[in-house]
Design brief:
alpha/beta, 273 residues, 17% helix, 3 helices
Length: 273
Amino acid sequence: WAPDGWPGTPGCAERRPMAFRFVHTGDLHLDSPFVGLTTEAPSGVVATLREATLRAWTNIVDLALVAQVDFLLVAGDAFEHANRTLRGQLAFRDGLARLAAARIPSFVVTGNHDPLNGWEPSVTWPELAHRFPAKDVTVRPVLRAGEEIARVHGISYDRRDITTNLARGFQRDVNSPFSIGLLHANVGGLEGAANYAPCTVADLQASGMDYWALGHIHRHHVVSAERPAAVYCGNPQGRDPGETDPRGCYVVSVDDSGRVRPEFRAVDVVRWQ
């Protein structure tokens, strides 16, 4: 199948798209501290703050299960530090395991906060959870009832300071079904965030992806509405008074013509005013 404007492949049978849904999240920063608040806030507030990022992750998993999505994407920075805490790792694993038990696969890339060269406990991930390697962009199929409904292209950070344009390594195969780019990057040099894996909207367009699941920028917003759709999911839990407004993730619906509809869903536990 090729949507309007995409080159087809002569001699190949027409491949019809299938409707599906997925959750796009990232920048979880699991088990990260709320610096500067825990020494002054009442004990009940302190306890809530310490659990907030973990509870937001639980809310995301609950949302995926209730919405009966086909898969889940994590666009980097699942953890706050390269030296991931055991508590954060176990919470992440347990959430992925709940999804796997419902036959919902998950696809994860790392970012500047949780690169692959950091220390991590020996926690075994569920079979249906896939973390992309860092050397090159690799591709994983998404199967439903044995039929491929989408392909996820992704690349992880092997170290914190990635200053090369990783988006240029993404390329849709001409015979691919709906194609997703999963990347932690600064698109367009947005201010207020470090310029990791810098790229442009033109780079995203040149890849041929149908949807870009982006992480790194904590304010959720749509970078491009179509051809391709490109979305920053933002962080699901604001962690300081500067991160105001609702925080959450996106439930993305793709219809049987390949049209994309991303819907923001708030999952935060603490909200700053």
